[in-house]
Design a protein that fits this description.
Elements (H helix, E strand, L loop, with lengths): L1 H26 L12 H15 L5 H10 L10 H8 L6 H14 L3 H6 L5 H14 L6 H16 L11
Length: 168
């Protein structure tokens, strides 16, 4: 008798598990095969976008850390327009950090790499005006003016022809 009750109890438990599993699968939508799953690359892009946003938002210490890490990002050239007004600003902590980060980014720029990665160079070229303005601002600190001048020159090199034309 015990064996029969045990067998019936197990069969009932299996039936409950099967029906519960069936109900849960009916409630869970099937994965949409037409949309790609989030990849590690997309996650990295989102993290880098958040890092770029952290440059302008938050406490000074958080912004300083974000500015210092900016040259290490894959999207570092896109930070140049954001760093320009910070470098030209009055903050004695953030301005030199932004100018230094911009210089580290600008000196590492390679036009062929930027084109291969299909980076939009419009904002990068537009940022040059901000660095030129800082370089020519006599009320700015001398070290910031020098770094801004270096950045503007490096950005100008992106427009320079690879081979200079020869006179005939």
């Amino acid at each position: 008798m015990r064996v029969l009750l045990f067998f019936l109890g197990c069969a009932g438990l299996v039936g409950v598990l099967v029906s519960t599993t069936h109900e849960l699968s009916a409630q869970t939508p099937a994965p949409n095969r037409s949309t790609p799953r989030r990849s590690a690359t997309e996650a990295r892009w989102r993290a880098e976008d958040a890092a770029l946003a952290a440059i302008t938002e938050g406490e000074v210490a958080d912004r300083l850390r974000a500015i210092q890490r900016t040259p290490e990002l894959e999207v570092a050239p896109l930070a140049l327009p954001t760093l320009s007004p910070i470098a030209a600003g009055d903050d004695p902590i953030l301005a030199p950090a932004a100018a230094s980060a911009a210089w580290r980014i600008a000196r590492a720029l390679d036009l062929d790499t930027l084109r291969a990665e299909e980076v939009d160079l419009g904002p990068v070229h537009d940022a040059r005006a901000g660095y030129l303005a800082l370089a020519n601002d006599e009320s700015a600190r001398a070290d910031l003016r020098q770094l801004a001048s270096f950045v503007a020159d490096a950005l100008a090199q992106l427009d320079a022809p690879a081979v200079l034309p020869t006179a005939e």
